[in-house]
C-alpha cells in the first residue's frame, strides 16, 4: 500500500494489481520527474476504466489553457465526462474536483450539486462544505471569477 500526494488530495493506492502498479508509475513520471511519458499510461488506464487515471486526465484537461477546457458530462473524453465516469466508478475525489471546477466556472448550482453528490456518497469534507456553502473561497482561482476571500484559520488544512 502506497500513499501518493497530488497537491491537495492524498490517495491510497493498493499496488497489488498490474493496473495500480502502472498508475503509480504514471504518477511518478508526472510528479516526481521519473523517465518516461505519463500521458499514454493514463490514457491506457482510463480507457480500461481506472478511476484515478480518469481524474488525472481530467485535471490535465482542465489546466491546459484551452478556451473550453471543461466540456460537457455527456462527452466521455472531456474533463467533465471523465470526472463523471470516475465518480460513477466510486471515486469520491472526482466529485470534489468536479465541484471545484464548477465553482471556478462561477456555476454555484453545479458546485452545490456536486458537493451534494459527494456528501451522499460519504465524503465528510463535502458534507461540511455543503453545510457551510461558501460562495467565496480563498484559493487563487476564486479570484478569477471574483469570488476571492481572505484565508482564515479554518483553511489551514488546505
Structure description:
It is built from eight helices and two strands, in the order ββαααααααα. The chain has helices at residues 18-31, 38-47, 51-62, 79-88, 92-104, 108-120, 124-132, 140-144; strands at residues 2-6, 9-13. The two termini are 24 Å apart. It is mainly α and 158 residues long. The model is unreliable at 1-10 (pLDDT under 50). The protein has a two-stranded antiparallel sheet with strand order 1-2.
Features:
two-stranded antiparallel ribbon; disordered N terminus; mainly alpha; globular; 2 strands; 158 residues; 8 helices; 54% helix
Mean pLDDT: 79
Q: What percentage of amino acids are in beta strands?
A: 5-15%
**Low-pLDDT residue spans:** 1-10
Strand neighbour order, sheet with most strands:
1-2
Q: What would you call the shape?
A: globular
Assign a percent range to the helix content: 40-55%
Distance between the termini: 24 Å
What is shown here, in short?
With 158 residues, this protein is mostly helical. Helix content is 54%, strand content 6%.
Topology:
Layout: E1 2-6, E2 9-13, H1 18-31, H2 38-47, H3 51-62, H4 79-88, H5 92-104, H6 108-120, H7 124-132, H8 140-144
Helix pairs in contact: 1-2, 2-3, 3-4, 3-5, 4-5, 5-6, 6-7
Amino acid at each position: 500500500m502506497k500513499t501518493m500526494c497530488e497537491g491537495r488530495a492524498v490517495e491510497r493506492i493498493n499496488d497489488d494489481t498490474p493496473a495500480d502498479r502502472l498508475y503509480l508509475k504514471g504518477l511518478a513520471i508526472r510528479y516526481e520527474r521519473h523517465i518516461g511519458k505519463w500521458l499514454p499510461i493514463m490514457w491506457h488506464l482510463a480507457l480500461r476504466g481506472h478511476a484515478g487515471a480518469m481524474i488525472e486526465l481530467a485535471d490535465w484537461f482542465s489546466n491546459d489553457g484551452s478556451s473550453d477546457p471543461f466540456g460537457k458530462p455527456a462527452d466521455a473524453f472531456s474533463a467533465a465526462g471523465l470526472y463523471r465516469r470516475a465518480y460513477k466508478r466510486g471515486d469520491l475525489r472526482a466529485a470534489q474536483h468536479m465541484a471545484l471546477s464548477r465553482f471556478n466556472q462561477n456555476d454555484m448550482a453545479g458546485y452545490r450539486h456536486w458537493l451534494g453528490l459527494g456528501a451522499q456518497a460519504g465524503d465528510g469534507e463535502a458534507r461540511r462544505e455543503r453545510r457551510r456553502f461558501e460562495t467565496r473561497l480563498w484559493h487563487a482561482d476564486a479570484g478569477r471569477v471574483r469570488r476571492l476571500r481572505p484565508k482564515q484559520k479554518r483553511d489551514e488544512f488546505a
